[in-house]
Amino acid sequence: MALRRRTLIGSALGAALPGGAAGQSNIDWRGIPRLMQGPVLGPCGPDEASIWTRSSGPFATAIEFAPDPGFSGSRRTTPRTARRGEDFVLVHRLEGLQPATTYHYRVLVDGRPNPDDAGHEPFRLTTAPVLPSRFRLAFGSCARRARYPVQPIWRAIEAARPDLFVWAGDAVYADTPEPEILAEEYRRQRDLPEIRRFMATTPQLAIWDDHDYGLNDHDRRHPGKVEALNTFRRYWPNPELGVQNALGAFFRWSYGGVDFFFLDVRFHRDPNDQPDGPSKTMLGAVQRRWLLDGLAASRATFKVLVSGSGWNDSKPEGADSWASYTFERDLILNEITRRGVTGVLLLSGDTHYGELNCLPWSERGGYDLYELVSSPLAQDTVDLYLAARPILRVRQAFSGDVNFGLLDFDLAPPDPTVGLELRDEGGHAVWPPVQLRASELTPGRKTWPQKIDALSRERWNRAQAGRAYY
């Protein structure tokens, strides 16, 4: 009897082991092939698109796509195997697409549709138009998953139906020099149920700021910045970053007749408290030259400069904004004037309150430059602007709620337009939008007196007379 029992135990152990005994078991020793995060839709051009995925192991992964949601006549990308060294992340390139066309897609893991997408697929994407067109961009910054594990604002952003979304820095709050922790924060943010469909169906483009680069207010001295850049590159399906002779998270993208310049304000940044002057830089010489040459060569009606740090002078010198780098900032804006670059718009984040400001470069021979600031998406709001230096605000700073920015471009009219708007968590406009015409963003045009609201005008006049702004 004892012998019989030992035989049964030995048979059971043998069936539980891999190798030859595994053939007698229903266990799949690889686990369930599936996605852990994603899909995330990257930038879409007129004839191509990129999709980011992270799988549960070294499985062959591909994208099946077709104009038909039933996948009649579908095509597939070449299956590629996710690797452990790349955290099982892949970026898939869909090519040979038609412009301004909606496609439906699903992710195939190990040859089968991702099992966890049942009931959610097919996802959709729309390619970019070839000609200048009408489209909507949404953007925001500062999303702190640890403090805000529920982020309802994404429902409002999705309901606004933007054609693309821009992360203007602090997409996660890693606050660590460790690339493994930074990667973990990206994964936690993408696990939010309220963001998943939006990131799968709306093209995402991203820059970083301090909290997704390293530590608070971190600069070029970050000892792990190359590893942080590799993690950033791995987790965002951006266009190619940097240039041959300069690393960084900066790049250029065009959509619908508008050129976007995404700036890296961390990798080459001198310390904030270094005295300002010709040698102090936020961008580094190579990135600054790349920006200015790109602006001069651009034939787009509008050129949008995206910076994680605010462009205005409200913060004191030594603080974490362009106010501590005014020599370099003014050099850039003066070169825009000197080279006759038209149609420049400024976007930024970081501040934890929304803003719409004007840098009155019409007083320096150029034209008034408008800065729309969206912050935060999911983080505490603050009213530090009450103690800030007075600046030319076109709309009053908004700290009543989390927020996101909208830019509505219409390139069809003879004089193209862009509308600037800020919305709260419920999707409601926090103040009346401002509309700009392309002809107003040309040398010699002073437009802010026609754009500013009554309260902002009153407070600006008061500050100009030497009295308190508030």
UniProtKB/TrEMBL annotation:
<protein>
    <recommendedName>
        <fullName>Alkaline phosphatase family protein</fullName>
    </recommendedName>
</protein>
<dbReference type="InterPro" id="IPR038607">
    <property type="entry name" value="PhoD-like_sf"/>
</dbReference>
<dbReference type="Pfam" id="PF09423">
    <property type="entry name" value="PhoD"/>
</dbReference>
<dbReference type="InterPro" id="IPR032093">
    <property type="entry name" value="PhoD_N"/>
</dbReference>
<dbReference type="InterPro" id="IPR018946">
    <property type="entry name" value="PhoD-like_MPP"/>
</dbReference>
<dbReference type="Pfam" id="PF16655">
    <property type="entry name" value="PhoD_N"/>
</dbReference>
<dbReference type="InterPro" id="IPR029052">
    <property type="entry name" value="Metallo-depent_PP-like"/>
</dbReference>
<feature type="domain" description="PhoD-like phosphatase metallophosphatase">
    <location>
        <begin position="138"/>
        <end position="385"/>
    </location>
</feature>
<feature type="domain" description="Phospholipase D N-terminal">
    <location>
        <begin position="44"/>
        <end position="112"/>
    </location>
</feature>
